[in-house]
Specification:
five-stranded mixed sheet, 2-enoyl-CoA Hydratase, Chain A, domain 1, alpha/beta, 7 helices, 19% strand
């Protein structure tokens, strides 16, 4: 799921590449392997100058299947909650690594994919027709569940985050994302 390159300048390039799917998603493989990558980064922190997180797919990261959240019955809620809590914890580990982390977004980063990029210190989005970022969960009656609400409010302030990004579930092209800040 994760490729790893550590260059002579100390930059680690982590490439997400789920071999079983056409897109990287928050599936069992991701939730099992992402903490292992973070363990390695934390153990090597002193030899790392920075981290670039990218994808080998046409999308950066497709996130989770939101219909699972919308249709989850009472018996499934504890599992969904546990998965989101693990993801929040791991994204916080990425965010507090102590080294600059850059998301190199090469395609769509919506929902969970954008939440991953928000846990990075910088986001660079390729200006191509398929590139789009955003948190569209609110269009299904949900809010970003892995820290994206807090990170968006921190970046833009409460009013702009809620009214222009989170509640309308906006999707931004690279140009519009740059314009929005």
């Amino acid at each position: 799921m994760f490729g790893w390159q550590h260059d002579s300048d100390g930059v680690v390039i982590i490439t997400m590449d789920d071999p079983d799917n056409s897109a990287n998603t928050a599936n069992e493989r991701f939730t099992d392997e992402f903490p292992v990558v973070l363990d390695h980064l934390e153990a090597m922190r002193d030899s790392i100058a920075g981290v670039v997180l990218t994808s080998s797919k046409k999308t950066f990261f497709a996130g989770a299947d939101l219909t699972t959240f919308v249709t989850a019955g009472p018996e499934e809620i504890p599992g969904v909650e546990a998965m989101l809590n693990r993801l929040k914890e791991n994204l916080r580990r990425l965010e507090t690594l102590g080294r600059p982390v850059v998301a190199a977004i090469n395609g769509a980063a919506l929902g969970g994919g954008y939440e991953i990029s928000l846990a990075c210190h910088l986001r660079v989005v390729v200006n191509s027709p398929g590139a789009v970022v955003g948190l569209p969960e609110s269009t299904l009656g949900l809010l970003a569940g892995a820290g994206g609400v807090v990170r968006t409010v921190r970046m833009f302030g409460v009013e702009k985050a809620l009214n222009e990004i989170l509640l309308p579930g906006m999707r931004f092209t690279p140009d519009k994302a740059l314009e929005a800040g």
